[in-house]
Amino acid sequence: MSQTLSLSQTTLDAVDRFRARKVSVEVEARPLSAELPTPTSFNPAARKAYYFYLMAPAIALLAFISLYPFFWLIVMAFQKGDMGAVEWVGFKNFTDLASDGRFLSGWVLLFKYSAMCLFLQVGIGVLLAVIVNGSRYEKFLVTALLMPMMMAPAVAGLLWLFLYNGTFGWYHWIFQSLGILETGSILSSAKTSMYALVLVDVWQWTPLITLIALAGLKRVPRDQMEANMVDGASPARNFFAIVMPNLYPVLLIAVLLRFMDNFRFIDHILVLTGGGPANSTKILPIYLFEVAFKFFDLGRGAAIALVLLVVTIILGKILVGVFDRPTSGGR
Amino acid sequence: MATVTIRNVWKYYNQTPAVKDLNLTCPDGSFVSILGPSGCGKSSTMRMLAGLEHISAGDILFDDVRINDLAPKDRDVAMVFENYALYPHKTVFENIANPLRLRKASEATIKDRVNGAAKLLEISHLLDRRPSELSGGQKQRVAIGRAIVREPKLFLFDEPIAHLDAKLRAHMRGEIKHLQKTLGTTMIYVTHDQLEALSMADYIAVMHDGELQQWGTPSEIFNHPVNAWVAGFVGEPAMNFVTAEIRGGGDGVTLKHANFEIPLLASQVGKLNGAAQAGTARMGVRPDALTISMTRPDGPAITGVIFVNELLGGDMLVEVQLQDVRMRVKTSTDFAGKPGETCWLTVNREKWHVFDAGDGHAYF
Ligand SMILES: Nc1ncnc2c1ncn2[C@@H]1O[C@H](COP(=O)(O)OP(=O)(O)OP(=O)(O)O)[C@@H](O)[C@H]1O
Ligand SMILES: [Mg+2]
After folding, report:
1. What is the Å distance from ligand 1's center to B70 Cα?
2. Domain ranges of chain A
3. Most A-contacting residue of B102, B306, B311 (CB-CB within 10 A), to test interface
4. Of A27, B37, B180, B220, most Cβ neighbours within 10 A?
């Protein structure tokens, strides 16, 4: 026989030893009727203690730059007068608000403004995201969409001030040509001024919703959409059954961001209308700005700010509750 | 129920072809298995049948109606996906009920059908869970459930039981086959497990590298492979291949190798065409077409040295070293040979094959 055939003696010995080894398998069967043992240990929760140490420096810094002023805000809300002579007035600043017509109408206008903005931004934003997603020009479109967002809100306000201008404004001209606007300029009519502000906000911030929704669309599992299609779903049905449940969590973040921004970003409003005409755009944050920094009634301003803050927190909680339905993966 | 015709179908992903000029006709009510190794284009074919993938060239017909441009929902097929594709936010019940709901079945029908399917698949106790709380095999059964609650024109099963344990797999093989025969629905069943294909299918399409290698009944595929690739892919343990020289002599034609010289049967000589008479060829013998003995038998035999013995439950598999290759022989467990000892293999020449050394096509 040729050389390849001769197996070394050690290999053969190893094989023999392997074959000759004594294998004893002793399995004691548990009778089927026997009681199941109770578990003595459960899956451990993730260890999170070290999170605290990692976060501690950031928390300390935050406390210094944000908690300290916040503390002063609370103190001021119970005082009257400016920096010089202060006087403790208890809850008077708060009780006074109940009879303050501007304060109450500020709320109404704020909700109107925010609701319109959110509705349009989410609607248009998701629609744009669906259009952009998978398009051949996706990269270019995303870049183009980003541009309004990159602009400082006050600058955006100035830009639109020109566009709305009653003598040379482009939009003024369009709306008048279309017959939507009869007389006067867009911003100086109490009927149109609010919509003009909404349009600016929608123009500037819809892209943010689009971007976030686009990220959401990217993680919609394709196989589920395909399975649903084979199961007999139309494209529209597929969108609401598979895409939307996957989009809810990211939309929550977008809506939360935008709604809180609506409650505090007033740059473009200050530039465009300053709350006018005839208080038709005096949403609460504008009123707050006036009370605190035009009339220097710091106590009352602080009280308004605190109420605004509490309402924002409550609304935020409700929003999270509404959106936090079981979605992918979880129960 | 439908006859499915695949005519000159190509699938390109960008520039790479995944399916090349595929032609198949699956008769109405038949169980067709597409068998092939990973990446040979099985899933691509299925996805084109379901309408999830654009057909690069060629036509697919259901009952002589061209369906190339039909949306998936209008094709009336039910598919089991390779990766389950369950809906994570729905319970198992709702997952299975989905095709019925989308087709507006009544609540009573839905309950009835879903419970029936769950019972068949032994997942009745899981109906309230969500997919994230299931094991791989359980998910797979839910995916099968979703396909069988309806009575579609065509079933497309893409490796539906690959993740089950051996016992459950054997059970499911029977259930799926029985279900298909009871419903009489045409079934296209993708698998890379040749045992599954051989045991379940009426017809097998063997694919390799996007090309159809052979179409035939399980016994045709197993007993008369058209080329060496099919012969090597089908059968477990795999067929032995030995490259040998074809010698034409006075008393017939023989296969000559350092370890043997075996004459062809008279009926087989004619099947070798003239070109192969003097060249080399590849001999193919399945392990169970060989008989091993420790003494020199009468007649032509292969001489070798036992390399190792493997016990396979009821059988013993012996690996025998020849000069350049090893051959595997199936024998009974009382075989007494030891590694290192010389042995002789007798070939059952009714069951051996000779393939062309070049393109590998089978002479017989
Ligand atoms: N979306 C895709 N884009 C590019 N190439 C693809 C795509 N899908 C599949 N391919 C390629 O096409 C070939 C066939 O893939 P296919 O999924 O049909 O294989 P398969 O036979 O189902 O394999 P498996 O048994 O592993 O599931 C592979 O080479 C794969 O890399
Ligand atoms: Mg596949």
Report:
1. 23
2. 101-328
3. B102
4. B180
What per-residue confidence (pLDDT) applies to A42?
A: 78
B123-130 contact pairs (CB < 8 A, 24+): B123/B92, B126/B92, B127/B91, B127/B92, B127/B93, B127/B96, B128/B91, B128/B92, B128/B93, B129/B91, B129/B92, B130/A331, B130/B88, B130/B89, B130/B90, B130/B91, B130/B92
Q: Do B351 and B273 meet the contact criterion of CB atoms below 8 Å apart?
A: no
Give the pLDDT confidence of A303-319 residue by residue, as tens digits.
Answer: 999 999 999 999 988 88
- Bigger pLDDT: B1 vs B52: B52
Q: In 3D, which of B129, B132, B125, B127 has the Cα closest to residue B88?
A: B132
Whether the CA torsion B60, B63, B64, B69 is positive or negative: it is negative
Using a CB-CB cut-off of 8 Å, the residues of chain A touching B81 are 223, 226-227
Q: Is the dihedral of CA B95, B100, B103, B108 positive or negative?
A: negative
C-alpha angle A179/A184/A187, rounded to 5°? 100
Is B19's C-beta closer than 6 angstroms to any atom of ligand 1? no
- The average pLDDT across B18-47 equals 94
Rounded distance between C-alpha atoms, residue B71 and residue B73, angstroms: 5
User: A233, B73: Cβ pair inside 8 Å?
Assistant: yes
B71, B85, B339: residue with CB nearest A227: B85
Q: What is the mean pLDDT of residues B181-198?
A: 91
Q: For the structural domain made of B4-233, what CATH number should be given?
A: 3.40.50.300
Residue B216: per-residue pLDDT: 95
H-helix or E-strand spanning residue A60: helix A49-62
Pick the CATH number of A101-328 from 3.40.50.720, 1.10.3720.10, 1.20.810.10, 3.40.309.10: 1.10.3720.10
Calculate mean pLDDT across residues B342-348: 93
pLDDT of residue B278: 63
